[in-house]
Amino acid sequence: MKIVQLYSGQNLKTGDYIYRIQQPAQGLSNLGVTILNVDLLALPSPRVLEQVPFLILHHLADPDILSIVNLRKKKGLPTFYELADNFYDSQRIKYHSKVRYDYNVIIEEFVRRCDAIQTTNPQLSQIFQNLNANIFVFPNLVQIISKKFPAKKSSKSENVVIGWGGSLRHYEDMAYFAPVICEILQKYEHVKLAIMAAEKFLGLFTRVPRKQIIYRQPGSLQEYIEFLKILDIGLAPLLPTDFNACRSDVKFLEYASQGVVPVCSRFGPYLNVGDENQSIVYFENAKEMKEKLEILIKQPKLRNKIAQSAWHWVQKNRLANDPKWQERLTIYRRFYKAKPWNESSFKKVLNFQVAELINLVLKSRNLTRSHGLLKEAVKQNPDDYQVR
């Protein structure tokens, strides 16, 4: 099976790209799928996509691709659309207006015209099921680096680090709960707050002594994972908005996979993960957040117990492994009709992205397949490669 995942100008080091494009590509590649991650901005022409066997569009809003989707449908070639957010409410947050933007209309057409939609959140599937009956929820998966639970130093010391990292889209969420967080830090001098976000967030905590603040600039997913390693308690506050209801549960997964206690709003994406008071700690409002944080601060054994349970929950339920990718591949195969393919367009994309493909297969430790792909690339376009 051959698949092209198309995105536009994404930062390849961010969680959005790694969780939704890179990791699925690696996982499906392990199952024998040839899969390419292609940047629309780097293609010589989008027309090379007309005849690729299976195409996945990742939250694109380029109207020129709509005609490609139409042509593919006429030819019986499947196209999936990855819907990342509730774009209706996302635009209201960005522009502070309820006016329908062209951006919304274009994405609506993608959702209507593509053969199926894939997303991370059941709520999103409910909102858009009237536009497309084929909607599949593919939850985020994580790769746990260590096979052993990463115990925290604070379980044996008095210092406790509470932390959060995120984008400016969640500024209002943090601003609402910031006063309570400040109260906690003022009351417990041995507690520190770690923030990995835009500097604007620091303005929410000016009441707190600077020595209790640990600040990191926004960075790559790998840098964020390193940041999580210093945390004991991870915050995941969400205000009850339509946009937040459709967010993914990845923050819980990231905390849990790194041995951090997830303290999450009892809302939206966090309602479907963990076991309450065993592997996730919920709060419904600022008062309850404060109460739960104080309990965790005072009880290191409880922190360690919940963190371990959360780590095991992720390992059992959301670990990126072959069975999880096989579930997705089974759905893709339902749309991948058995018929002779004209693969000339796919080979154009393959030659254009062959270096990335070989690197992907190398990461899966399939050296035989990597060698085969390289030989085929050289055979197709010998002038493009120097063999030594």
Quick description:
With 388 residues, the chain is α/β, with parallel strands linked by helices.
Which secondary structure elements does this structure contain, and how are they paired or packed?
Elements: E1 2-7, H1 15-30, E2 34-39, E3 55-58, H2 64-74, E4 79-82, H3 87-95, H4 102-113, E5 116-119, H5 122-128, E6 135-137, E7 160-165, H6 171-187, E8 191-196, E9 213-216, H7 221-228, E10 233-236, H8 242-245, H9 250-257, E11 261-265, E12 281-283, H10 286-298, H11 300-317, H12 322-335, H13 344-352, H14 354-363, H15 367-380
Parallel strand pairs: 1-2, 1-3, 3-4, 4-5, 5-6, 7-8, 7-10, 8-9, 10-11, 11-12
Give structural notes:
This protein is of the alpha/beta class and about 400 residues long. It has 2 domains: about 1-140 and about 320-385, Rossmann fold, CATH 3.40.50; about 155-315, Glycogen Phosphorylase B (Rossmann fold). The chain has helices spanning about 15-30, 65-75, 85-95, 100-115, 120-130, 170-185, 220-230, 240-245, 250-255, 285-300, 300-315, 320-335, 345-350, 355-365, 365-380, and strands at about 1-5, 35-40, 55-60, 80, 115-120, 135, 160-165, 190-195, 215, 235, 260-265, 280-285. It has a 6-stranded parallel sheet, sandwiched between helices. It is elongated, with a radius of gyration of 23 Å. It starts with a strand and ends in an 8-residue tail after the last helix.
